[in-house]
Amino acid sequence: MKMRVAIMGAGLSGLSCAIELERHGIHPTILERRSRVGDRFINGEVFADIFSRPVKDEVRYLAENHQIYIQPPSNINELILYSPNQQATLKGPIGFVSIRGRHEESLENQLARQVKSKVHFNAEESYEDLLREYTHVVVATGDAEYVKRIQAFEVGLTVTLKGTTVEGAFSRARVICWFDQRFAPHTGYGFLIPFSEKEATLVLAYPEYKGISAYDKDELWKRFQDRASRDLGQSLKVTDSFEVNEYIMGIAESPRLGNTLFVGNCLGTIMPLMGFGQFPSILSGIYAALDICGIEKYEDLIASIRSSYYNSLALRRFVESLDNDGIDKVIKLLNGYWGYKLIHSKINFLKWAGYAVRTLSPVPTFDRTVQERRASDVQPHTDQQ
After folding, report:
1. Residue numbers of the domain that contains 348
2. pTM of the model as a whole
3. Which range, of 57-61, 88-92, 136-140, 347-351, averages the lowest pLDDT?
4. Residue-wise over 287-299: b if at least 16 C-beta within 10 A, else e?
5. Please, what is the end-to-end C-alpha distance for the chain in angstroms?
6. Model confidence over 1-21: pLDDT tens digits?
7. How many independent structural domains does the chain possess?
8. CATH of the domain at 98
9. Closest Cα to residue 4, out of 249, 205, 259?
10. Which spans in the chain are helix H?
11. DSSP assignment of 259-317, as one string?
12. Residues 227, 103: contact at Cβ < 8 Å?
């Protein structure tokens, strides 16, 4: 029987899988339930090597090793971190800005232009339908709820995201991040990522646990927007907005089920510490293709991604234990020697910090503890008032 490959989803992992398959002479069928690639709100994300070491430059790595070519709108050479009473400024080769969503130069659209196979939009085929017709199925839907119907999927946390596209005056190379329990409970965060000198995305993200309903989401957003405007020294004109509730970050029990391979968020490539995961998502698609082509084993290739997920989850649990005083201490620590080392060292600080936290307080895998934590009575911080 001739090998036939179906890819469910035309996002980062699905398109990357298709590009790698085509490099080896396999032309997959790509099925996308939406009407176009990147059919979602526009927002900014980052490629930052502090999350991907030992890879130092993700854009160069993808080009040189897999002939996947990304054109970022700008470098990032300055990262400003704000806490309630402290500020840290980190300078150096931090990474790159990327655009996601329906923007013409979004990462999804850049990848789509490199795919030769046809993308079938408004696709309604189910996973079960594809199993009957194809030898291999790559599940790249980005929807963890979907994959939970197929196999066990551990939910690490769910997140609320509220964001806007804003107009103002920005430095293309400067990204700003805020940590403050008064508007980002459970050590969530807000960030501003510029698309250009005149346009940026402003996003507030925080975990959802029992007790989060005690907060007024509109009031949290207003506090954050006021703080961002004050620190930027300008009013921000909103041109677009979005809100996502109960967004799942988690990990699949197994990376494959027979000749079905799970990639992207269906595998567990979103790192819970800060919620970014585009580089591991792209890698997971590439790795799935290499397995299908008989070159390497998927389970071996994604082992480091799974380890990074659990390290990131352990760090997420740790930072959630901090109050605003604790956040101030961390930001103060980063405004100097440790901030410089974080940016300029080749050491994978997040890996070793995550490993240390996991050693002291192990993160359980695939048991009831995660669900019990999410259902526990997590109360609002006292300085929320």
Report:
1. 5-384
2. 0.91
3. 347-351
4. bbbbbbbeeeebe
5. 65
6. 689 999 999 999 999 999 999
7. 1
8. 3.50.50.60
9. 259
10. 12-23, 58-66, 107-112, 127-133, 144-147, 217-232, 278-292, 298-301, 303-320, 324-334, 337-344, 349-360, 369-375
11. TEEE-GGGTT-S-TTT---HHHHHHHHHHHHHHHTTSS-HHHHTHHHHHHHHHHHHHHH
12. no
Strand order in 5-8's β-sheet?
119-121, 29-32, 5-8, 136-139, 260-262, 256-257
Report, in angstroms and rounded to the nearest whole number, the Rg of the chain calculated over CA atoms.
Answer: 20
With CA atoms as reference, report the closest residue to 295 among 7, 23, 11, 12: 23
Q: Which two tokens stand for residue 4?
A: 């036939």
Residue 39: pLDDT band (50, 70, 90) is confident
Q: pLDDT exceeding 70 applies to what percent of the chain?
A: 92
**Residues present in the chain in total:** 385
Report the alpha-carbon distance of residue 227 to residue 208 in Å, rounded.
Answer: 22
Amino acid at site 166: V
The closest alpha carbon to 262, from 375, 155, 372, 147, belongs to 147
Tens digits of residue pLDDT in 47-85: 998 889 889 899 999 999 999 999 999 999 999 999 999
| Other CB atoms within 10 A of residue 213 CB | 10
